[in-house]
Amino acid sequence: MKNVDITFPKSICLDKGKFQIDLETPKENAITIDGVFYLPYFLDNLNPGNSGANGCVLKLIDLEKYNDIRDYPLIPDLVIKVCKHSIPKWKEESQRSKRFEIEIEALVDCNEHNLPNLMTVHHYGQASIRWSDIERNRNANFRFYTMDYADSQLSKYLEVNNLSLLERLELCIEICESLKQIWSRNYYHRDIKPDNILFIEDKWMISDLGLAEHRDQTIEIDDDGEWIGPRGWMSPEAMNKFLAESKPWNSLHNCKINHQSDIYQIGKVLWYILQGNSPEGGIRRSDFLWKNENIYQIIRTMLNNSKERRVKSIEEVISALKKEQKQLFKVGVIDMLY
């Protein structure tokens, strides 16, 4: 893991928050990172801009390994994530650029403590990239980091694998272990959803710490009434923050997003892993497709609207799921969802 600064060639630019690459002369697009020449390509050809909420992602191919463009692999050597928002020279840095900096700090912190269920950052720093918009066409500096390529993503994995209940529980436990490790460094994730759960190097892990907040963070990044979290997977207090925080009735509602919010979000993800939909509204026992009452109660408690009535720690969830897993294994019945 190295802190390095890099420069993108002129054939690559960021235009309105999306990468533009001249694919006619691919070798002219090479980027040098720590003495190694990498060729950047779009991660997803169906979404060539590869633009997320706060970052753009490209796959990187080590040019020294391949002599011919026809030999370039489908699986890249690394992936680079670049913040869409530049670091200004003469004015205050934007909120989104500061969030990207916190994301890098959190990942580096977790890596330095050798947490096994968190993705590895190989390089991080600032990238000088041609920035094209209506008014300017010049280089600007953007934060970036490189990481390993994900073999799969949770939603896609579940689409092609009909798992047994035991296998689904194992998946739930491994993802909860990843959150436990993030918490061990005093970070709240706040953006837990299936798209942010990746399979890398034979492990499932929670990625994208772009909304992460440290328990002892002294600088307030969030705006009053800001939408924090993924649509469809938000906690009640995140919705309260959006609807009530800057309003006269603010004091009537809990708008604080913390570790209990992570419990709610991961509870929704566990429900999705177990049966392929999202729990919405007033949840009833009949909504849960499995006959196992104990598993239902574990997740139902995670999904209480009141933070005070939710499970208090992720260790408690892991312990309860492992107990059910052990019991199912002992019985030896292989239950399938469909």
Q: What does this molecule look like?
A:
InterPro entries: Kinase-like_dom_sf, Prot_kinase_dom, Ser/Thr_kinase_AS. Residues 43-338 form the Protein kinase domain. This is Protein kinase. α3 runs antiparallel to α5 (259-275), α3 packs antiparallel against α7 and α6 (293-302) runs antiparallel to α7. Helix content is 29%, strand content 22%. The chain contains seven helices and 15 strands. The chain is globular. Strands 1, 2, 3, 4, 5, 6, 7, 8, 9 and 10 form a ten-stranded mixed β-sheet that branches. A three-stranded antiparallel β-sheet has the order 11-13-14. It starts with a strand and ends in a 7-residue tail after the last helix. The chain folds into two domains: 2-147, no CATH class; 152-331, Orthogonal Bundle (Transferase(Phosphotransferase), domain 1). It is α+β, with helices and mostly antiparallel strands and 338 residues long. The relative contact order is 0.11. The longest helix has 20 residues, at 165-184. The model has no long low-confidence stretch (mean pLDDT 88).
Summarize the structure.
Helix 3 packs antiparallel against helix 7. The chain has helices at residues 95-112, 154-160, 165-184, 236-244, 259-275, 293-302, 314-331; strands at 2-3, 6-7, 12-15, 18-21, 31-33, 36-42, 55-62, 78-83, 121-132, 137-147, 152-153, 187-188, 197-200, 203-206, 213-214. The relative contact order is 0.11.
